[in-house]
Amino acid sequence: MVQNLGNGSAELNSSEVQLVAQETAQKCSSMMQTCLGPDPDSSEAIEFLCLAEGGEVTHYEVLAAISKRLNGKIKNARKLSTSVSSILKEEKRRLALCTRLEKQTATSE
Ligand SMILES: [Fe+2]
């Protein structure tokens, strides 16, 4: 979907966005189970959260760059850009929180 948006030929389709989001959530859940195994401790869980949040920050940085380029080229480009900026800000806040938690966990052991 990001590729379709990137070439400027697509309109923003909310059902397609939801479908991709569901697929991504399933992939993430499967990665989490593989990464953490059956009996994770809190340090491993926080480390996984940091990985996930870092991935999300990168994803929304890329989406922000694409949405900026699409301004004026597709319907709802401004709305997309505003939504992506808002989500990116929140993901950065969560990554900072996870990083702080991992530092606390690592230095308290
Ligand atoms: Fe997140």
Quick recap of the structure?
Helix content is 81%, strand content 0%. The protein is built from four helices and no strands.
What report would you give on this structure?
The chain has 109 residues and is mainly alpha-helical. It has one domain. Helices cover 81% and strands 0% of the residues. The protein contains four helices and no strands. It has helices at residues 2-6, 14-36, 42-69, 77-108. Helix 2 (14-36) packs antiparallel against helix 3 (42-69) and helix 3 packs antiparallel against helix 4 (77-108). The structure holds fe (ii) ion. Fe (ii) ion (FE2) binds at residues 53, 56, 91, 94. Residues 53, 56, 91, 94 line the site of fe (ii) ion (FE2).
Q: How would you describe this structure in keywords?
A:
binds fe (ii) ion; 4 helices; 81% helix; mainly alpha; 109 residues; single chain
How many DSSP helices? 4
Task: Tell me the number of structural domains.
Answer: 1
Rg (CA only): 17 Å
- Shape by Cα distribution: elongated
Structural class by helix and strand composition? mainly alpha
Query: Which stretches of 5+ consecutive residues score pLDDT under 50?
Result: none
The distinct bound ligands, ions and cofactors come out as: fe (ii) ion
